[in-house]
Write a structure and sequence with these properties.
301 residues, alpha/beta, six-stranded parallel β-sheet, 44% helix
Length: 301
Amino acid sequence: MTGAKKIIMLHGRGRKPEAAQLQELWCQSLAAGLQRDAPELLDNFAAVPTQMIYFADELQQFDRHTFDPKLDLANRQQALERLAALDKPRQFRRRSYDELPGKTALKEFVMDVSAVAGLSAASTNRALPELKHYWGDENFKHKVREALLDTLKQCFANNEDVLLLSHCIGSVVAYDVLWLLGHEHAHSHRVSQWLTFGSPLGSRYVQGKLQGRKEQGARKYPVNVVEWHNISAEDDYVCHDKTVADDFVQMLEQRLIGGISDHTIYNLAVRYGRSNPHSSVGYLVHPRTTRCLAEWLSSDT
């Protein structure tokens, strides 16, 4: 039997609102999904403590756009309001996605072609300079890892039931930390559910940079997750390779994890007047995410 529940969040690339604002926006997005699909669990969700592992202040140098924090937060909230107004899960299907302004598969196509041509390193580093920074800057890597390590260690010490949410490059950080916890810190506790959104973990190039990549057998993979759900949106170039179950099947065969599931969705978020299939808000409010959250909230502790 585990103790109280807790949700831990890791954001992705790019400039973000302040930590407290971003955490609140993620919680509002999750609550909007529950309000639509499982309103009976809203009180349960409200009682669960959440924590955002925040590192966006380290990534300002990689922002290619003018950044107005008030405008950015307002635009994210507008995107959520539009999505929260969709009151039926069936409204999150392809027909709705095809009607979005500025929808394009070009970036994902470029990433796919680069992978086939053996240019994954160059294309990934160009598309995700923040990830290159994570791999190359030891101080930054240590800082962001330690923040999650310390949080998970405390959760495990308290015997808490953890739901880990990680978006984009946050999923790479989460993977590395989960590996470190099991193999270098010898923690046997498990995260109940790990949800990855818009994750580059399906990329062979990225896999070649992960903790444990040079190990064999059980030492190659994280050993402290019960269920891993990988959610990828159509046209999200960051997760152009949308499956992880095939790449990490050894985790199942060696009984290191209870299950790995891939889910492809349509992310209906619109940012600054254009479709943004990588948006965390669009992932968090989606019915597939809500289903995973509802199952976790309903599980025995």
